[in-house]
Design brief:
The chain is mainly α. About 35% of the residues lie in helices and about 5% in strands. A two-stranded parallel ribbon has the order 1-2. A hairpin with a 2-residue loop joins strand 3 and strand 4. It starts with a helix and ends with a helix.
Length: about 140
């Protein structure tokens, strides 16, 4: 088993697991040190909460995989803020705010100060859609 052979390296797995049953099987069979399901692929925040509960019952930290720089980052931060087995949030695909960046579709962004992500506040995920930018993009 890989995890037993690599005691100096943490094994992170689960980005291809999309529900609590897959995560449960992964933990029981693969024994990863950290699980990293993706909130956008794992049926949302409710399923991530269920996944976190299963991981916590096995003493496995949760570190979300993040494929979408805007909404997924915000949702991942909300998930991490709500669980007791949160690992360090690591993955953020881009902070670029250029004219073609997906950030243009939002009036606000996930705030990072001194290397610390701040959970967005406000309704929903805490990001406010920029309707004008969306209209301009779809023509």
């Amino acid at each position: 088993m890989v995890t037993a052979a690599l005691d100096q390296v943490e094994i992170i797995a689960g980005e291809m697991c999309y529900n609590r049953w897959q995560i449960n099987d992964l933990i029981r069979v693969g024994h990863p040190d950290i699980i990293n399901p993706d909130v956008c692929k794992a049926c949302g925040i409710t399923e991530m909460d269920r996944i976190a509960t299963i991981a916590q019952s096995h003493h496995v930290p949760l570190q979300p995989h993040n494929t979408a720089v805007t909404i997924c980052t915000a949702a991942s931060l909300h998930c991490l803020a709500a669980v007791t087995n949160a690992a360090a949030f690591l993955e953020c695909t881009s902070l670029d705010a250029g004219p073609e960046s997906p950030h243009r579709f939002f009036r606000n962004r996930v705030r990072i100060e001194n290397g610390v992500f701040h959970v967005p506040e406000g309704p929903g995920h805490g990001l406010e859609i920029n309707a004008e930018a969306v209209r301009a993009a779809v023509g």
